């Protein structure tokens, strides 16, 4: 085997290995009274929250929420349960604290002193 063929074989093996260990992603979402939360789900064996953006009523764009400021209290895609809390670290560019509680296809978003009932899509 030539040096070029060997390096190509190694490159293919590395690419296959990377694809096999890469985390699959999908998304789920919550919608209520002008609020839209788009949640990116990652993970191979056990799903985890990999990203979240929130669009507020009247806003022209959504805001990415740093995952490090999210506390996932429960996330069970089989039982269709999600309990997710965001605590603003004092950043004026981010929304205020909120809590999302989901059971099956219904959810409640607690934000700005309001509890908003809405629809949750488990589009995984």
N- to C-terminal distance: 44 Å
Strand order of the largest sheet: 4-3-2-1-9-8-7-6-5
Element-level helix/strand string: HEEEEEEEEE
The largest sheet is:
9 strands, antiparallel
Please specify the SSE layout and strand pairing.
Layout: H1 3-21, E1 25-32, E2 35-42, E3 48-55, E4 63-65, E5 70-76, E6 81-86, E7 98-103, E8 106-111, E9 114-121
Antiparallel strand pairs: 1-2, 1-9, 2-3, 3-4, 5-6, 6-7, 7-8, 8-9
Descriptive overview:
The structure is a single chain. With 124 residues, this protein is of the alpha+beta class. Helices cover 15% and strands 48% of the residues. The chain has one helix and nine strands. A nine-stranded antiparallel β-sheet has the order 4-3-2-1-9-8-7-6-5, with no helix packed on it. A hairpin with a 2-residue loop joins β7 and β8 (106-111). It starts with a helix and ends with a strand. The model is unreliable at 3-23 (pLDDT under 50).
List keywords for this structure.
124 residues, alpha+beta, 9-stranded antiparallel sheet, 1 helix, disordered N terminus
How would you sum up this structure in a few lines?
This protein is of the alpha+beta class. The protein has one helix spanning 3-21; strands spanning 25-32, 35-42, 48-55, 63-65, 70-76, 81-86, 98-103, 106-111, 114-121. Helices cover 15% and strands 48% of the residues.
């Amino acid at each position: 085997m030539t040096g070029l063929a060997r390096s190509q074989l190694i490159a293919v093996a590395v690419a296959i290995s990377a694809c096999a260990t890469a985390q699959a992603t999908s998304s789920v979402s919550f919608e209520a009274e002008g609020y839209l939360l788009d949640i990116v789900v990652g993970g191979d064996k056990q799903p985890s929250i990999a990203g979240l953006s929130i669009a507020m009523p009247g806003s022209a764009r959504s805001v990415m929420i740093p995952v490090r400021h999210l506390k996932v209290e429960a996330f069970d895609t089989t039982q269709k349960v999600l309990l997710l809390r965001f605590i603003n670290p004092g950043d004026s560019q981010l929304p205020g604290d909120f809590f999302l509680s989901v059971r099956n296809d219904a959810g409640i978003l607690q934000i700005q002193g309001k509890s908003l009932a809405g629809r949750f899509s488990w589009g995984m």
